[in-house]
């Protein structure tokens, strides 16, 4: 598999504190990689290191196969755009002028594609309005537009939906999907908003206290998150007797409810229960969410 970013036992220490502890991570080309961890887990530290904003203590990383110690690494970083912590935009400038400024900083020869970039992030109608008067969501999208100057093929977003309202979250989600699907941009997103990430990510990396706990593809995660049929009945004893009789795997949740993990013939089960005067009050498919997977992975409710 082709990787845009790999890290090899990457560590960052602040005196005796290990912000990153021999972290190993693999971001495949074309992925939307959800980098998940609670506050202080080390997500921003990793992003700052790969952006060249800080030096690692030991270990290293490769961008497009080039080692961080190689002199070619700066050239590789030009293929990467990033929004780290807050978007780096000039509050007294319009959206267009902000992007124009970034083009100048990068020494790009032409401003011709700025209107397309504004359109892409949905800021085409903002005219002379200054960035300081934008909503948080607009500022975030402008930050992404600035990061896209120079047409990077790897976009790194640090907590991009933090503090956004539901509409703002949807806009950022659609933008990320568009960039990934239509422009084949690989995206690394750090977040602790698990539900939101699960709508986007093709791969996940779970980080805890500076260590990579697990890397998993969305497909593997789907398989790991067990689907089950949740049933509410008037008599749990009748239900468990039936389930035992049908050799089905289940877990009793309460005096009236159970999760059935095996594939079940619902009609046959409901008819059999009715014969025993046990009625079904509710039945639905239930998925283990990304959040519960995260909690079970880390062995306790340590998600903040
Ligand atoms: N300059 C620094 N000096 C000392 N400790 C630091 C420094 N920068 C970060 N840390 C510590 O390193 C740890 C990791 O911080 P980091 O910002 O990478 O976490 P994070 O996963 O991005 O969390 P958040 O979601 O809160 O942004 C934290 O405990 C933080 O306090």
From TrEMBL:
InterPro entries to which the protein is assigned, alphabetical: AAA+_ATPase, ABC_transporter-like_ATP-bd, ABC_transporter-like_CS, P-loop_NTPase
Keyword annotations for this protein?
Answer: ATP-binding, Nucleotide-binding, Transport
Note whether ATP-binding occurs among the keywords. yes
Q: What residue range is the signal peptide?
A: none
Molecular-function GO terms, alphabetical: ATP binding; ATP hydrolysis activity
Q: Which residues form the ABC transporter domain?
A: 5-234
PROSITE patterns the record matches? ABC_TRANSPORTER_1, ABC_TRANSPORTER_2
Pfam short name (any one): ABC_tran
Q: Which family does it belong to?
A: Belongs to the ABC transporter superfamily.
Protein name (database record): ATP-binding cassette domain-containing protein
Q: Which organism is it from?
A: Extibacter muris
């Amino acid at each position: 598999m082709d990787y845009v970013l790999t890290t090899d036992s990457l560590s960052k220490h602040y005196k005796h504190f290990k912000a990153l502890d021999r972290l190993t991570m693999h971001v495949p080309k074309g992925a939307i990689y959800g980098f998940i961890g609670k506050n202080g887990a080390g997500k921003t530290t990793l992003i700052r290191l790969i952006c060249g904003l800080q030096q690692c203590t030991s270990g290293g990383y490769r961008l497009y196969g080039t080692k961080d110690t190689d002199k070619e690494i700066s050239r590789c970083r030009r293929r990467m755009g990033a929004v780290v912590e807050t978007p780096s935009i000039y509050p007294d400038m319009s959206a267009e002028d902000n992007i124009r400024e970034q083009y100048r900083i990068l020494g790009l020869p032409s401003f011709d594609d700025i209107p397309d970039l504004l359109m892409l992030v949905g800021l085409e109608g903002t005219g002379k309005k200054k960035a300081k008067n934008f909503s948080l969501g607009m500022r975030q999208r402008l930050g992404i537009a600035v990061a896209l100057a120079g047409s990077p093929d790897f976009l790194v977003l640090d907590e991009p939906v933090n503090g956004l309202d539901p509409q703002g979250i949807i806009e950022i989600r659609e933008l990320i999907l568009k960039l990934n699907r239509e422009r084949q941009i690989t995206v690394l997103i750090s977040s602790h908003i698990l539900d939101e990430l699960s709508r986007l990510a093709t791969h996940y990396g779970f980080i805890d206290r500076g260590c990579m706990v697990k890397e998993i593809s969305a497909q593997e995660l789907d398989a790991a998150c067990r689907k089950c049929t949740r049933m509410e009945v008037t008599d749990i004893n009748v239900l468990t007797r039936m389930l035992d009789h049908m050799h089905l795997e289940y877990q009793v949740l309460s005096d009236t409810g159970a999760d059935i993990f095996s594939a079940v013939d619902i009609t046959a089960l409901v008819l059999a229960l009715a014969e025993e005067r046990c009625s079904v009050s509710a039945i639905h498919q239930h998925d283990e969410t990304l959040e519960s997977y995260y909690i079970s992975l880390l062995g306790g409710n340590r998600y903040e």
